[in-house]
Amino acid sequence: MSRTALPLAALVSVLSLFAMDTAWSKPQNPAATTAARPVFREIWAYLMRGEERELTGAEPITDLCYFGTGLTKEGRITDAAARPAVTPKDGVMPRVHLVIAELSNNALMHFSLDPEYGVRPLLIEDICRVSEGFDGVQIDFESVSRDDADYFLDFLKALRGSLPSSRMLSVAVPAKTELIADAYEYTRIAAVADRLIIMAYDEHWSTSAPGPIASLPWCARVADYARGVIDREKMVMGVPLYGRAWQEKRLARALRFRNVQDIVAEKKTETKYSSELGAWFEYSENVVVKVFYDDERSLMEKLNLYKARNIDAVSFWRIGLGPQALWNSIETTGSAATPDATQYRPY
Question: Which residues are registered as beta bridge partners of 99?
Fold first, then answer.
């Protein structure tokens, strides 16, 4: 899934209101809720490799996820990533986690996880090696097929057993509102991982109909389902800091000759010709673009919704995308300098 905002073009129509359903309840005192500064036990945030300048030191985070490396076509780690420099905030030195990501290649995932090919132990060795100097490893494999669910779980168990006990293992999983037959069953993965990052965003995506990245009622349903199957200590709710734009019309496309003739007649445009270029013409078109995004107000509503559900760990995708004022509106309760090794489950 894509987690980057699309470029804006043409006329922009911003929709800031959307229908709420009955799957969530509004707070008794909305004014007091939005004015409160939510405090979380853990605040995780992602930093994209190459965007280190976006990390200002004002972010009150306990855990920094460095989106640093991926897989080659042979199922090995692409390259090592140096641990980014982090400045303590209010005496809290964040843990830094190296993110190993593969987002869209199902065939590569199968090749890397199926023990028949002999790649899996080599990949685990790579991950242990490149994560030296980091406080944790996060696996963000978003294209594991349902048929490879057991291979994925075995991979996570083997990785947990190979990592030092002081190095955390977190796993990014897609948002769900109910049990789905896929490779990301929360209960099974939570039995192995130290944290599950629930990616509660992309309710609407680049090729879907326009809509919120993460509407409040949808976030409530995702949170309620996750709370029912994951221990509170392992659950981290993801929060989007990006927006997305949808064009009303798709203009870039292949055309039949009769389609071209129809456009020429409709637009009453003049066609041109040269031996070098062939036939061509141009015309103007108005395009309406719908944009959904989160501002500080909507972000605080999500955070307060999670606090009201006794969720005390959140993560943000990603540093540099959202309003800078957000970081002055949230707090964390303690230091993340020393991981709690009692929560690890060696396999």
Answer: 67, 138
pLDDT, tens digit (0-9, with 9 covering 90-100), for 111-149: 999 999 999 999 999 999 999 999 999 999 999 999 999
Cα separation, 41 vs 233, whole angstroms: 10
The 3-state DSSP composition of the chain as helix, strand, coil percent (nearest 5) reads: 30, 25, 50
CATH number of 11-247+287-343: 3.20.20.80
Phi, psi of 300 (to 5 degrees): -65, -35
From CA 111, how far away is CA 290, in angstroms rounded? Answer: 39
Domain coordinates in residue numbering, the chain: 11-247+287-343
Q: Is 266 part of the annotated catalytic residue set?
A: no
User: Is 274 buried (19+), middle (13-18) or exposed (0-12) by CB count in 10 A?
Assistant: exposed
Closest alpha carbon to 148 in 104, 190, 115: 115
Exactly one of 102, 142, 185, 203 is catalytic; which is it? Answer: 142
The model's pTM: 0.86
Closest CA to 44 of 310, 305, 317: 317
Question: What pLDDT score does 338 carry?
Answer: 42
Contact partners, residue 344, CB within 8 Å, separation at least 6 = 160, 165, 168, 169, 194
CA 208 to each of CA 25, 205, 213, 233: distance values in angstroms, whole numbers, following the listed order: 27, 5, 11, 34
